[in-house]
Amino acid sequence: MNGSTAFRRPITTTERMYFPMRDLAPPFLMQLVIPGEGDIDPARLGRAVAAAAAVTPGARLVRRGAEWVDSGITPAVRVVRGHVLHAPALETDPVLTSPIGPTPDTTVEVLLLTGAPATLVFRVFHGVMDGMGMVLWVRNVLRALRGEEPIPQPHPIADQELVPRVGAPGKPTAMVPRYRSAVGRGRQRRGVARHLLRHRSIDAAGPGALARVCALLAAETPGTSRIMMPVDLRRHDPELRSTANLALPLFLDIEPGRDWTQIKEQIKTGLHERRELNQLANTRITLVPDVVNRGVLHTTNWLGARFGRNLASATVSHMGRFTAEELAVPGFQPTGLYVLPQHSVAMPLLFGLTEFDGRTDLTVSARNGDGVEARLDALLDRIVATLESEFAVQDSVDRSL
Asked: Is the pTM of this model over 0.85?
């Protein structure tokens, strides 16, 4: 494309912190997974990806100095014949852990796994999109597969431009590494996976899933937990059409024993007061040479793994509610949708929640270490059992009304 007319936008301070992560926590990708029944023709998928990318320039970005620039190159569609994801230890899966391709500056790709079940995997470097931006991109590809017109996402706007326009109401939360994790700490060993990746399906759904998970994590954590809840900034400008990083955290400080309904009210208050807008100021720490940024992140990981001192206890995100009917394409009927979080050295736990046809999917990336895997699996067992029980009670109450 002509450099003077290509879509471009500045790399924000938020996004700068993600570049060292590709080496410190590889492959550092958000991955949205859609298993289903039927099959998808690779050529047809390639055409749909091209059509969607033509109006979603955020899917074709490459770094050029201090800017993201539309390369004009359609994201690659990679077919992995016969592959089935390595559950439950997804960190051992050679496809999910592989680098994004085909070149080192690639930021988005689409996988088609032809095993049973056939599965679409959308892989995105967090430096170019946030979670909801990825969802917008995926929906555009599915629209194109159905023969519909994708919705253009032409605005070169990320958090660094939007927040000053909207206005931050207060000061940022102080970032001090003192918070414990629900899975404890553990020394990281050479030759052992530095991060774990898990997916659990809960055969039920109900209100307040995110708040319920926060309450369960706090109950398992010594002292006050600090939960980081990403908030979609697009809520401040409904006309905005951008897949860029437009999420900032709402911090929730939660004591053990706090009921999930109280946490839900805490979230409502934070959103009403627009507190997430305050946090852009915290990203200014990245305005240092990349080598310094990398050193800060390395130290943050060491403090968390060895001493259990973290900037936050966990991140918990809810990526939305989906149905098979809205996601279906000719020849392929989705049977689920879940989001695998990127790994992080700055956070011990990153949880992702989605709801699909009355089922709740829970995913987590966890910083590994001595004893962490067993504690993580036990924690997930308790979360799944508790949510299934609570949702069943809620369903009974709803039916009796």
From this structure: yes
